[in-house]
Amino acid sequence: MIDTLQDALGSSIVLTDEDLVAGYVHDEAEWAAYGRALAVVRATSVYDVQQTVRWAIEHDVPVVPRGAGTGLSGGANAVDGCVIISLERMNKVKEINALERLAVVEPGVVNNDLRDAVAKEGLWYPPDPASAPWSTIGGNVGTNAGGVCCVKYGVTRDYVLSLQVVTGTGEVVRIGRRTAKGVAGLDLVGLMVGSEGTLGVITEITVRLRPLPDPPRTVIGYFDSIVDAGVAVREVAAKGVTPSALELVDRVCLQAVDNYAHMGLSGEANVILIGEVDQPGDTGVRESQLLQEAFTAGNATFVAETCDPKEAEVMMAARRLAYPAMEGLGDLLTEDICVPKEHVPEMLRRIEVIAAECNTQIANVAHAGDGNLHPLMITERGDTAARERAQQAFGRIIDDAIALGGTVTGEHGVGLLKMPGLAKEQGPHVMAMQQAIKKALDPHGILNPGKVLPVASPTGSVL
Amino acid sequence: MIDTLQDALGSSIVLTDEDLVAGYVHDEAEWAAYGRALAVVRATSVYDVQQTVRWAIEHDVPVVPRGAGTGLSGGANAVDGCVIISLERMNKVKEINALERLAVVEPGVVNNDLRDAVAKEGLWYPPDPASAPWSTIGGNVGTNAGGVCCVKYGVTRDYVLSLQVVTGTGEVVRIGRRTAKGVAGLDLVGLMVGSEGTLGVITEITVRLRPLPDPPRTVIGYFDSIVDAGVAVREVAAKGVTPSALELVDRVCLQAVDNYAHMGLSGEANVILIGEVDQPGDTGVRESQLLQEAFTAGNATFVAETCDPKEAEVMMAARRLAYPAMEGLGDLLTEDICVPKEHVPEMLRRIEVIAAECNTQIANVAHAGDGNLHPLMITERGDTAARERAQQAFGRIIDDAIALGGTVTGEHGVGLLKMPGLAKEQGPHVMAMQQAIKKALDPHGILNPGKVLPVASPTGSVL
């Protein structure tokens, strides 16, 4: 069956060799299940994507789009019998327009490559997930990726103006606009962003850009306890400061980073907060002052400001290296809850309690300034009992986040891992609205089925 | 039939008196058709709304939600045999939370009332349509309203975190979140914003807030021709300035404002640009300087900066009064195109050509900084031939905006007046996607039918 697709597009585009296909069947969500794929289509053009989707409709085969596979929720994992569409070869920056402050890119452009290209024009593409050196804009759009700067500058959806999409009926459409404003019809672009490949395959993206920000002032705080750091985060919000970054790294992560990159940070503090403010002039000075006061109000044991970019970069590098550094410690189950800022200290306290009660090591990194916490459950590889306890902790953290008015996923997406959490958070009526939209835009049920939303049976009920 | 609804909710809520109903059957789009309504439900609670929608489903009666009726596209106009749901009495500000920077409001809260309420806490709700003294947040959300500040601070959709909605199946749901970030499921909030009552009836809104901005520097430019002013607008973008306002008012409007409010502006200039920058300190000084240079590059005959809030307010008042002042001149047909910034001079030139060729007086006000132009076709009341010429001009302006890569509606919404333009702009496949979503969320076809999208026949084709 796959032969007809291979004949149409060529064997350099449609890979069926098992070893090659194996490299594409899952993302970086270690705990998420994945199935066997028939083939990988390494698309080079919208034509390849459209032909694949039309072939998939004809043969009733699921398609799973993917970028670099750096996702942490299993959204790009193969489902049995699927064709994976990899967009990595569609990696051209087609236009950078300084006057309109926009760029047009293919989905396989790596986030940092776009950022570097526009920086040459004095422009900035803000969304900066920790995966920015590897992840692609297409994947970022599919998951509505966040990052460090979001606390001030918003997430991927805030920067997507227009998309070219291959739809669930195999048409190539252009949605959105190039203009600064526009209210023509329903917001199909916003709907497509963050839909994790369940509503269409994105083949071109027009993003908004901003001018490069002013160099930040960086404020570091050391804390004895994670709850103290949480209190400082709440104080930042209470004082009305808008930091351009406010990150938390705990002792377990600091030690892992020390082992990984020999930075010598873990001797200094149990928990660090790294804050940045980037308003110019006296306003920036005042904001930095307020940030320092907020850290002090959270019982910081040490607070300092630096305007030395190198020193600031060392601190932020520790944050960025946390995840790769931790991977050496065992199997990681990554949480991604987001709670209202006022409840950050309480949520961090509850995570400590859950760690103790579930006898599970939980490390913490966080985009703390917007309440987006990433507790990381670490278990020794092969220890089944520990794994079960970690899974229990994962579920309890989700329940507590919902109880505090939060959400089960701040930026990683639902994928497979957060499907039970999504249904708990949103309830049956909101789930039904989403199922109805899914069925409307994917009438053949071929677009990444079984991700985000449960597969609906032909009669409309949920299997 | 309507008696059963009146019995259920009471005759103070369900109005059927013809004279009273007549006050609710159209918005301010003078040229848009409207039909006869069975009744107006002046809802006081989500219960009233839900009961009305359930009754409407049972009796196959269209419901048309409306706020203050200040719309300019006919989106809130009655369709024959409908029940109008007026949300004006649901006007409580339920919560202002400075720490989370959000407010929770009922849909009938007047925009300026919300702005005043949050200003007391040092906070700011940016979206500021010219109708802000009268229009409601619910209406603003329904149309994704824009305004003067959007050029820097974005539109209504950028500020809506969460909604309570009565759905097309009569359920009360809560969509979105209270947290700063979140990617749980499809973006139902973004979809609902700007859907003009076609996907649900909004009964509660949670909006993001910002800190109050710094006082702006205001730069005024006088120009002999509107194309010169357009060149200045393009130069502002080319220089990479981010103004917090950049408004255009032409001679016809200035004279109307003079007659209306005796401000004496029209003796000074043919066209004025009013720019604001609000970055603090030296950055603001530099931005103001760049704005002045851009105006000069557009052949301004006079350029001046003022930091006197009173003087700045006079200029901005002239902009805000333009529409009410013009209403005295005759019938107004209001355009709302938005074009890429680089094409602002060319679009303004084409509007001049169209005015001459169609022998129609066209005045211009514009949110020029984001390319959102409001050419206003003025015709003497009762002059049918002039009206036909104006309608021809309206159509040609839409065609030219599309040809220049623009959109048919920047901020007013599609309603009735822009339905042909929407179909032209987006083409059949994108229209079909929207029809599919409409059918998914409004399976009974009762939610403001015949607005934005043509009514689909039961078999799926478009009548």
Largest sheet of chain A: 7 strands, antiparallel
Number of helices of chain A: 14
- Uncertain parts of chain A: none
Kindly report the CATH topology of the largest domain in chain A: Vanillyl-alcohol Oxidase, Chain A, domain 3
CATH-defined architecture of the largest domain in chain A: 3-Layer(aba) Sandwich
Q: Which percent band covers the strand fraction of chain A?
A: 15-25%
The radius of gyration computed from the alpha-carbon positions of chain A, rounded to a whole number of angstroms, is 22 Å
Strand order of the largest sheet of chain A: 15-12-14-13-17-18-16
Q: Count the E strands of chain A.
A: 18
Mean pLDDT of chain A: 95
**Any idea what the shape of chain A is?**
globular
Helix content of chain A: 25-40%
Give the termini separation of chain A.
27 Å
Pfam families (chains A, B): FAD-oxidase_C, FAD_binding_4
GO molecular function, one term (chains A, B): FAD binding
InterPro entries (chains A, B): FAD-bd_oxidored_4_C, FAD-bd_PCMH, FAD-bd_PCMH-like_sf, FAD-bd_PCMH_sub2, FAD-linked_Oxase-like_C, FAD-linked_OxidoTrans_Type4, Oxid_FAD_bind_N, Vanillyl_alc_oxidase_C-sub2
Cofactor (chains A, B): FAD
Walk me through the structure.
2 copies of one chain form a homodimer. Chain A is of the alpha+beta class and 463 residues long. Chain A folds into 4 domains: 2-86, 2-Layer Sandwich (Uridine Diphospho-n-acetylenolpyruvylglucosamine Reductase, domain 2), CATH 3.30.43.10; 93-211, 2-Layer Sandwich (Uridine Diphospho-n-acetylenolpyruvylglucosamine Reductase, domain 3), CATH 3.30.465; 217-403, Vanillyl-alcohol Oxidase, Chain A, domain 3, CATH 3.40.462; 418-463, no CATH class. Chain A is 36% helix and 21% strand. The first copy, chain A, has 14 helices and 18 strands. Chain A has helices at residues 2-9, 18-22, 46-59, 111-119, 137-143, 150-153, 188-192, 226-238, 251-261, 281-297, 309-326, 344-357, 384-403, 419-441; strands at residues 14-15, 37-42, 63-66, 82-86, 93-97, 102-105, 123-124, 160-167, 172-176, 200-208, 210-211, 217-223, 245-250, 271-277, 302-306, 331-334, 361-367, 372-379. Chain A has a 7-stranded antiparallel beta sheet, sandwiched between helices. Chain A has a 5-stranded antiparallel beta sheet with strand order 5-6-10-8-9. In chain A, strand 17 and strand 18 (372-379) form a beta hairpin. In chain A, helix 8 packs across helix 10 (281-297), helix 8 runs antiparallel to helix 12 (344-357) and helix 12 runs antiparallel to helix 13 (384-403). The longest helix of chain A has 23 residues, at 419-441. The two termini of chain A are 27 Å apart. The mean pLDDT of chain A is 95. Chains A and B meet through strand 9, helix 7, helix 8, helix 10 and helix 14 of A and strand 9, helix 7, helix 8, helix 10 and helix 14 of B.
